[in-house]
Structures are given as structure tokens and as C-alpha cells.
Design a protein that fits this description.
Oligomer: single chain
Strand order of the largest sheet: 6-1-3-2-7
Helix content: 25-40%
Largest sheet: 5 strands, antiparallel
């Protein structure tokens, strides 16, 4: 179950293009997993009043002291919001929303993309979030779900037959499948053909005069 969850979390993060992390924590030693999930859902509802298209993949983790907290992969949060005509920092507003949800339990929100050094690619963030699955499944209540995500129809997974293909041919097919339209793939051999790298380049536009010269 943990392996399936890790795979699904990674797939959803990549499909949604999530590239930043929010961590929701409690000041109190809040050990109720169900209450943590309810708080997270209430937080999402309130955030969507600011960001209607707010999407996320969330994993629940228990700290060493027993308190639960939430890791949420999201789209990079803008630096400021307008709240009742006043420009406020996104971090301050998200923290106030979380604290309004948890009440006397107290809490905080860590926004990853405040620090440029903490920013991750979509693939890195997907791997970072999915690593919590094994621990969460080991420590969570039996039969409870350790992650959740906003609803979204995922694209069908594509399959590639790799029988009798070299590593170079497999990589060429993968790159060609995902290369933007109007580009071409060029493979460059290096180190006496023991290594290679590929580039994705715009297809050159051949003008009439150039074509005449080539034909001539």
C-alpha cells in the first residue's frame, strides 16, 4: 500500500506541475490524525477564496512528540495578496488562515519558496513528498489514508515497448515524445562514441533563396 501511495503521489505532483511546499504545523501536541485532516480540509476551503484554482497533494506525518503535521505540494505561492483592499504578504495571510482554523491549538505555516535555495523542480518535489509515505503508513492508524489531493483527472499513462532497443534508442523515443512541436532532436556522440547527449532545437526555416542555393 505504501509503494502504491508513493507512486500515486509522485504521479499527481508531476501531472499538476506542483513546484512549492507548504508545511502546516501545530504549537500544541495535537495527536488526533482525523482532526488534523479536518483542519487541512478547512484550510483548503478558506485558501480557495483567495486562490480559486488552488491545487495540492498533501501527506500527513507524525512528529517524534506525537503531533501530526501536513506537507502540501502546491503551485508556487505569489509573494503578496490583496486582503480587503490591503496588500499583505502571502506568508502572513496563509499563517493567519491556518491559525483561524486550528484555534487555541496554535500553529504555523512554512512556505518553502520564501527561500530561493529551497526551491525544487517538480520531479524533486514529487520525490520529496512521496518519501513520507512509508513512514506515514507505518505510523498511521490502520486503514486510514495517509495522503490526499485535490480532484483532477490525470492523463493516461503512456507505455513504451523497450524490446530489442538500445539505451540510446529508448532515450531518443522518450525525448521525441515530449519535445515541443516545431523542434528536432539531435544526438551527439562523445568520447569515441562511448557517451552521448541530445539537444532539442528549433527546426530551421528554409527560405526560397536558401533552397535554390542548396538545389544548385
Amino acid at each position: 500500500a505504501a509503494r502504491r501511495a508513493k507512486s500515486e503521489v509522485r504521479r499527481r505532483c508531476k501531472a499538476m506541475g506542483l513546484d512549492s511546499m507548504l508545511t502546516l504545523t501545530y504549537r500544541a501536541n495535537q495527536k488526533d490524525e482525523a482532526l488534523c485532516k479536518w483542519h487541512m480540509e478547512a484550510f483548503v476551503k478558506r485558501v480557495r477564496k483567495l486562490i480559486p484554482q488552488f491545487r495540492y497533494v498533501a501527506a500527513f506525518e507524525r512528529q517524534d512528540r506525537g503531533a501530526w503535521h501536513v506537507h502540501m505540494a502546491v503551485h508556487r505561492v505569489q509573494s503578496h495578496f490583496m486582503d480587503r483592499g490591503v496588500r499583505v504578504k502571502s506568508f502572513d495571510l496563509l499563517r493567519s488562515i491556518w491559525r483561524s482554523v486550528v484555534g487555541e491549538l496554535g500553529g504555523n505555516v512554512d512556505v518553502q519558496n520564501k527561500r530561493k535555495s529551497a526551491r525544487k523542480t517538480v520531479a524533486q518535489l514529487a520525490a520529496y513528498l512521496s518519501k513520507y509515505m512509508t513512514k506515514a503508513y507505518a505510523e498511521g492508524e490502520e486503514h486510514s489514508k495517509r495522503w490526499t489531493a485535490s480532484r483532477m483527472k490525470l492523463p493516461e499513462a503512456s507505455r513504451l515497448c523497450v524490446r530489442k532497443l538500445s539505451l540510446l534508442q529508448i532515450l531518443q523515443q522518450l525525448v521525441e515524445e515530449h519535445a515541443p512541436e516545431g523542434t528536432q532532436i539531435r544526438t551527439h556522440l562523445v568520447d569515441g562514441a562511448r557517451g552521448f547527449f541530445m539537444t532539442v532545437e528549433p527546426i530551421p526555416i528554409v527560405r526560397g533563396s536558401d533552397l535554390a542555393i542548396q538545389l544548385g
